[in-house]
Amino acid sequence: MADAITLDSVMKRYGDKVAVENLSLSVPAGELFAFLGPNGAGKTTTIKMIAGLLLPNQGTVSVCGHRMGTDGLLAKAQLAYVPDQPFLYEKLTGREFLHFVSDMYRIDPRERDPRIALLIERLDMSTFLDRLTGGYSHGMKQRVVLAAALLHQPRVLVIDEPMIGLDPKTVRTVKDLFVEITRSGGAVFMSTHTLEVAEAVADRIGIIDHGRLIAVGTLAELRAGSTRQHTLEAIFLELTEPAATEGARPAT
User: Fold this and answer.
1) What is the pLDDT of residue 242?
2) Dihedral (Cα; 174, 178, 180, 182), 10-degree rounding
3) Which residues of the chain have pLDDT under 70?
4) What phi and psi, each to the nearest 5 degrees, are found at residue 211?
5) Predicted pLDDT of residue 194
6) Is the dihedral of CA 142, 151, 118, 89 positive or negative?
7) Which domain holds residue 110?
8) Are the beta carbons of 40 and 24 closer than 8 angstroms?
9) In this structure, are 60 and 183 located in the same domain?
10) Do 69 and 159 share a domain, yes or no?
11) Alpha-carbon torsion 175, 228, 211, 203, what sign?
12) Both 168 and 242 in a single domain?
């Protein structure tokens, strides 16, 4: 079986600036992978390449065995992407937006309505879903966008900063949804600055800095290679401090 996500020797440049350099990484089905890095490290560029919004200058990106750029439609049909800034059409209600997304994926209404009902309950959206989205808070928008991403039951969920603006109860629900996706054979690729979330839920963790993947492994493996064998925050700071990144250690 093909990995859920495969990046092979990927490079992305913006003019003279190299945003991502020689990145190779595989995320198997059934894994929740946390992708960490300082601001400007290359996280968002990597996520956009996985989602097919950007194509690499070199290397290949594949989702469920389908290569972006050549089999892009097949690849995108297998995934859902949730950006760090949720976008909704402000003249639609949340429910109308979910119906719109459902129509794009050609989901039969007989399947759509039970799926939406379940997501409304899980993400506690009943009090606002029939209001225009233009009046939503960030947290409300985040819940609707996440529900829209899960409607077609993707095999791969790519999500950037999933917990911003969410109350503690919804954070717990989102964590549970991620675990359910991976236990059912899907994969979650999550970029976040919230290291406590990554530490709590990730099966493996990758750390990128200055466009290079400098470490990847389970939390136990990262601790074993660190002089600060305690929290993920301590390990992250050790690896991304200027003295460390000058001679950035290779990915494990």
Assistant:
1) 64
2) 180
3) 1-2, 228-229, 242-252
4) 80, 0
5) 86
6) positive
7) 86-153
8) no
9) yes
10) yes
11) negative
12) yes
- Give dist(CA 219, CA 206) in Å, integer: 10
The three-state (H, E, C) secondary structure of the chain, written as one string: CCCCEEEEEEEEEECCEEEEEEEEEEECCCCEEEEECCCCCCHHHHHHHHCCCCCCCEEEEEECCEECCCCHHHHHHCEEEECCCCCCCCCCEHHHHHHHHHHHCCCCHHHHHHHHHHHHHHCCCCCCCCCEHHHCCHHHHHHHHHHHHHCCCCCEEEEECCCCCCCHHHHHHHHHHHHHHHHCCCEEEEECCCHHHHHHHCCEEEEEECCEEEEEECHHHHHHCCCCCCCHHHHHHHHHCHHHHHCCCCCC
Query: Contact, 36 vs 205, CB < 8 A?
Result: yes
Q: Give CA–CA dist 31/181, Å, rounded.
A: 9
pLDDT recorded at residue 251: 45
CA-CA distance, 252 to 242, in Å (whole number)? Answer: 20
**Other Cβ atoms closer than 10 A to 8:** 16
Q: What gap in Å lies between CA 90 and CA 109, rounded to an integer? A: 23
CB-CB neighbours of 164 under 10 Å = 15
57 — phi, psi (to 5°)? -75, -30
- Domain end among 130, 153, 176: 153
216 touches 207 (CB < 8 A)? yes
Write down the pTM of the prediction.
0.89
* CB contact at 8 A, 151 and 82: no
Residue 48 sits in the same domain as residue 169? yes
Contact 12, 50 (CB under 8 A): no
Q: CA–CA separation, 230 vs 143, rounded Å? A: 33
